[in-house]
Design brief:
The chain contains 8 helices and no strands. Helix 1 packs antiparallel against helix 5 and helix 7 packs antiparallel against helix 8. The protein is globular.
Length: 199
């Protein structure tokens, strides 16, 4: 199963997944309680220092995982420039980058199987309503697994379109991407049934 766990093992790999996820929840909550750009800047620098404890290769991977944020940061920056609220925009961007960097740190130092076990434990109270915590954990794992797969599929469909047309694919990839997702879901369902289901 695809995972974003870093092959560079650091001290955080040895911490229990539940502890790291709990600390991540507390840290993220703390970020949204802060409204001072200076304090948020210090929080970002502290997060950067935390990532640096993993070494240069770990830092490089972590920064690479932040690249998808740039369109959102650009939108936030342009909006707050237009409204004249530069301080507010700085706060939003610092919160966003710091929270995602912390989440990436936890993801890179935690095996997906350990996260699934934590999620399964958290979902146990839902068994009162007839929901299987094991099935919910499996669904969680499948979502994580297939997001990058679907992004890759959409990228390939877009490349195929560009090879046949000078225009941009844009919304035209939605139908083939949706059909591909349904086909993948059907194949996964058949595979699960062949192995006895999720129970």
């Amino acid at each position: 199963m695809l995972t974003l766990t870093s092959p560079v093992e650091i001290w955080a790999h040895r911490w229990p997944a539940g502890r790291k996820l709990a600390l991540l929840a507390l840290a993220t909550t703390g970020l949204f309680l802060l409204s001072s750009p200076l304090l948020l800047c210090l929080a970002f620098l502290a997060t950067l220092g935390l990532i640096l404890t993993g070494g240069a290769a770990f830092l490089e991977t972590s920064l690479r995982l932040l690249r998808p944020l740039w369109p959102f940061l650009l939108i936030v920056a342009l909006w707050h420039l237009w409204t004249g609220d530069l301080a507010g925009g700085t706060v939003v961007m610092l919160r966003m980058v710091t929270a995602v960097a912390l989440a990436n740190f936890v993801t890179m130092t935690t095996r997906l199987s350990d996260m699934i076990l934590v999620f399964q434990w958290l979902a146990r109270p839902l068994q009162v309503f007839g929901l299987s915590s094991r099935r919910l954990a499996l669904a969680f794992a499948l979502v994580i697994r297939f997001i990058p797969v679907m992004l890759d599929r959409v990228g390939k469909i877009s490349e195929s379109w560009r090879a046949r047309s000078p225009g941009n694919a844009r919304w035209r990839v939605l139908v083939p991407a949706t059909l591909a997702a349904l086909d993948d879901a059907d194949r996964v369902a058949e595979a699960l049934r062949a192995r006895g289901g999720a129970d």
